[in-house]
Specification:
Layout: H1 10-34, H2 41-48, H3 52-73, H4 77-80, H5 83-102, H6 106-138, H7 145-172, H8 179-197, H9 220-239, H10 243-249, H11 256-276, H12 282-305, H13 309-337, H14 343-368, H15 374-397
Helix pairs in contact: 1-6, 1-7, 1-8, 3-6, 3-14, 5-6, 5-8, 6-7, 6-14, 7-11, 9-13, 9-14, 9-15, 10-11, 11-13, 12-13, 12-15, 13-14, 14-15
Length: 398
């Protein structure tokens, strides 16, 4: 169960305020680590002869790890505590970082990506719930705006920061397949220290609930919101799997920094749009996110047909902004509606649907590249995603 917000205890309140920012930084670092390989995939392809399909399999293994962790452990922090889930999640990411360094072949890459996914799956819902509780403990009478902005920035901003930092290091330092992991192993070790220093917000219930895998219970408006998260993650999956390679091969811009920037632009636009979405009426955010993502996909397709980097990037930024608003709307609705004792489980269910969107469409895209050119496969991807957005819009109106 969640502890009540402290009252009349300014020292405790100040400690929770500092903890809020520490957990936000840990969240950002952990999510950034998960996207390090995105701008490096073309280098792995050149070194080991990977096909585009193999890249999507490597990416999908990560998403499978996330889904497995969400099913098995994404909800247990509601009764064992947030810190007791965050620490093993960070340990899994550290183990993955060591594997990336020690075993750079395809087998090692697959295992390291799976471990990364397990860590992220344990961490995302837990850290989101932790931030909300620390925010409430620090500012018990304040609105949830700070929590919404910071959690969104840590999530999408972290995913984008990982690609940008990895792309920069790959472009300008030696050992591009090693240095980014060394840097983030240091940051992850510091993150463990940070989590050890912050207060817990959950006390163990008198009778621990019987363990069961996470159940996804979505209906009505929650189901529509989760479907929006599915499409949002599909866009993010595209830009952390095949898009960097497409920029290098299809658009003839092989810069590793540009590959990292391409993914960063999409996530950065999503994080910025989430922050700005607070200025929009809550009832309009979902429909605006749908419209923005659909518009971005149209521009993205135009950039692919015209083989124009700048049109492609503009489409990615617009689609990323729409995806960010959709995801913010889904998290805000479900976090606010869930009882405190079930908040972690509710958010784990949302992330489970989202990461399914990260896996299934990208795997389908990879299979398509076995039979058609990457440009054609990505155009099909855009058309199918547009159809899905249309169906969600119709369901939302009903």
């Amino acid at each position: 169960m969640t502890k009540p917000a402290p009252t009349g205890a300014p020292t405790g309140s100040a400690r929770h305020g500092a903890a809020f920012w520490l957990v936000a930084v840990v969240y950002l670092v952990a999510l950034a680590f998960s996207t390090i390989p995105a701008p490096l995939y073309p280098l792995y392809q050149a070194a080991d002869g990977f096909s585009s399909f193999t890249v999507t399999v490597v990416f999908a293994v990560y998403a499978v790890g996330v889904i497995v962790a969400l099913l098995l452990a994404g909800h247990i922090s509601d009764w064992v505590g947030r810190r007791r889930v965050l620490l093993p999640a960070l340990a899994l990411e550290i183990a993955a970082g060591v594997l990336f360094l020690a075993w750079p072949s395809l087998t090692g890459l697959l295992l390291a990506r799976f471990l990364t996914g397990l860590g992220v799956g344990m961490l995302t819902a837990t850290a989101t719930a932790y931030l909300l509780e620390l925010h409430t403990a620090h500012r018990p009478r304040a609105a949830g705006t700070r929590f919404e902005v910071v959690s969104a920035a840590a999530n999408l901003g972290g995913l984008g920061a990982g690609t940008l930092v990895a792309g920069f290091l790959a472009q300008f330092v030696t050992a591009p397949l090693r240095t980014p992991y060394v840097v983030f192993l240091v940051l992850l070790a510091l993150s463990v220290v940070a989590v050890l220093s912050v207060p817990e917000t959950v006390t163990a219930p008198a009778v621990r609930p019987k363990y069961r895998p996470q159940r996804v219970r979505l209906s009505g408006a929650s189901l529509v919101a989760a479907a929006g998260a599915f499409t949002a993650f599909a866009v993010f999956g595209l830009f952390t799997s095949l898009a960097p390679g497409f920029v290098a091969a299809g658009l003839h811009h092989p810069s590793r920094l540009l590959a990292g920037f391409t993914a960063f632009l999409v996530f950065g636009a999503g994080a910025a749009a989430q922050s700005a979405a607070g200025l929009l009426p809550a009832a309009k955010r979902f429909s605006i996110g749908l419209a923005a993502q659909a518009s971005g996909l149209v521009v993205l397709a135009a950039g692919m047909v015209a083989t124009s980097l700048w049109i492609f990037l503009a489409g990615g930024a617009i689609a990323g902004a729409g995806a960010g608003i959709l995801f913010k709307s889904a998290v805000g609705r479900i976090a606010a509606a869930a009882p405190a004792a079930e908040r972690g489980a509710a958010l784990a269910g949302l992330f489970l649907v989202g990461y399914a969107g990260l896996t299934v469409p990208v795997l389908g895209l990879g299979v398509a590249t076995l039979f058609v050119a990457s440009t054609t496969a990505m155009l099909w991807f855009s058309v199918l995603l547009l159809a899905g957005l249309g169906a969600i819009a119709a369901a939302s109106r009903r």
